[in-house]
Amino acid sequence: MSDPSLPPADLPPALGGIRDEFLALEQNERLMLLLEFANELPELPAEYADHPDLLERVEECQSPVFIFVEVRDDVVHLHATAPKEAPTTRGFASILVQGLAGLTAEQVLDVPDDYPLTLGLTEAVSPLRIRGMSALLGRTKRQVREKTAA
Amino acid sequence: MTVETDASPAFAGYAHPERLVSTEWLAENLGAPGLVVVESDEDVLLYETGHIEGAVKIDWHTDLNDPLVRDYLDGAGFAKLLSAKGISRDDTVVIYGDKNNWWAAYALWVFSLFGHEDVRLLDGGRAKWEAEGRAYVTETTTRPATEYPVVERDDSKIRAYKDDVLAHLGLDETKRALVDVRSPEEYSGERTTAPAYPEEGTLRAGHIPSAQSVPWAKAVAEDGTFKKTDELDAIYRKGAGLKDGDSVIAYCRIGERSSHTWFVLTHLLGFEGVRNYDGSWTEWGSAVRVPIVKGTEPGAVPAT
To answer: Which of A16, B33, B64, B227 has minimal CB crowding within 10 Å?
Structure first.
C-alpha cells in the first residue's frame, strides 16, 4: 500500500502514455481511440481459451468479461476476453492489458484505483460504464495479491 | 415529411402496425427524404464498429439521461440534441439497436414523452440486420443541423412515478394491472440483481404486490422480432390476465426492458394508457416503507 503522506508516484510509462493519448483528443475522437484499443485486444492464449474454468468473470461488467492474471518471475501478465458485441468492454480490457504489460506485482498494486476516471472518458462513455473498467482493475489487483501471497 | 408505413402483412395483426418497419422496408427506404434512422445500444461503441448507412447514434446514458438528477433531459435539451442530430419534428424516425431492441424501445419511449409523432422500431434490430447479411458502414453520419422545437415533456400519459404506482395500488383490483418484466429469480426475490447487471442492485428483493411476472423476452421470437398477435394475446391477455380498460403499469429494474414491454402492450396489442414505471426496481427495492412481496405469487396489496 502506498504511504499517503508521500507525493503520488508517477504512473508507469505505458499507463501514463495511454492516459495522455486520450486526454489530448476531443471527446468523440476519444471514443475512436477506445475502439482502436478494443480492436487490439489479443486473443486468449490457447491454454486459457481451452480452460474457461481458469478465468474469472468480471461481474461488474454488463457484458461477459473474463480475466486471468499470471505472475511469472514477479512480472504480471493480464489476459482478458470479451465478446465482439461489447466493444466498450473490450476497449477497457485492452487498455489494461497494454498498460500493465511488463509491470511488477508491486507496480500493478500501486496503480491508483481511480485510473479509469482519469482518462477523460466519463463524459463520452458515462460514469456507470467506467465502473466496469474500475472493476477490471480491482479484480486484476486482487488476483495479483492472491498469486504473490507467500 | 412522413415516409409511408411498412404495409408488410407480417405486421397486419398488430394494433399499430405503423410503429414497426421490417428490414426489407428499411433497406428499400434508406436515404428517403424525411426518414432518419437512429441507433440506440447498450454498448456506447457498437455504432462505431458498424451501423446502418445514414444512421445517427443516440445513447441513453450520455444523450437522453440528465447527468445530475435521475430523470430524462428537458425540452430544451431534447431540442438541442435532435437539432444537432439533424432530426426535424415531422421526420419519420426509425430506431434500432442491440439486445433485442431494448435500448431502441427505450429511446422510442423517450421520443414519445416529447410527443415526436412518427417514431418506429426496426423489427429484429441489429441482430436481424446482421443475420440477413445486410451492410454496415463505419463512417459517422453527419446530417445538417435542424431547428427542432422546444417541446416540454409530458410525463402524464406513458410514464409512472413511484407515487403513481402507490396510487395505482389503491385502485380496484379488477381495474388495474402491474407487469413485472424481470427474470423469475428477481421477481421472487431470490436475487436483488439480474445475473449480468450487479450495478443495479437494491436493498430489498421481491416484487410490487399484485404484479404479474411476464419476463420481457416472452414477447420476442428467436430472431429478435416481436411475436405475432395471437401468441402475444396468449401471453398477456390469457396468461397475465390483462383486459382492455385496465390501467396497466410495467416495470423492470431501470425501465428499459419495461419500455420494450410498454411498446408491445401499447402498439402491438392496443392497450390504452399503459405507463412505464422507469424508477422500477432500482427505486422501489430501496425505497422506505413501500410494500413488497417475495415468492412466485403476485401477492395482495396490503390494506391501508
So the answer is: B33
